[in-house]
Amino acid sequence: MSTTKFQVADIRTTCFHHDVYEPAEDSYMLVDALESEWGNLKQNSPSVCLEIGCGTGYVICSAALLMKGEGTCLATDINPTAATTTSATLKAHNVHAEVVVGDLLAGMQERLQGKVDLLLFNPPYVPTPDEEVGGAGITASWAGGARGRVVIDRVLPLLPGILSERGVLLMVLVKENDVEDVSKALLSLNLDSTVVLTRRADEELLHILKVWKKPGYSTN
Known about the structure:
This protein has six helices and seven strands. It has 220 residues and is α/β, with parallel strands linked by helices. A seven-stranded mixed sheet has the order 3-2-1-4-5-7-6, sandwiched between helices. The mean pLDDT is 93.
């Protein structure tokens, strides 16, 4: 991990809305990990960055600032108000990303096949009843169903298809998600992973998991 400081989004310039999840310790952790990993990531000249579940736009805006206009940034959110708020945050920081309203990859899976060099995902990881998962309001930002894994487990099988050969995912997990089990699921998809940051926030033990394709990966 690099200790060099790079420009990321300013929380004071980030836009907010009462129906959109505000940046919290998990958001800051994801940006901290992105900043720490950027020295290595930029050596591969990432050209496509995607955030799933962009919320206020704090994370994708940080990525856009790091990329300095060299490449394409995209963001999705199931909450239309979150998409509008993300667009406002991007504008306030004078950077651009394509923001799409939709569930997870929002119909972009074919378009992004094998092209995503950097994927950012702060999923709804809080264990809740399954019926709370997937609404269009703020609840969708945190309600994760059984073990907090319902949405996470929907995304994992998509990774081999959308990550480029040099692609990297940075994903937030909480202890209750069972990081070891997530890593095993990734291995079954021919993906390697490692925890690059761990931090306690109140009663939560948060982790940032870095994921990439195993050497010699092939879709054939």
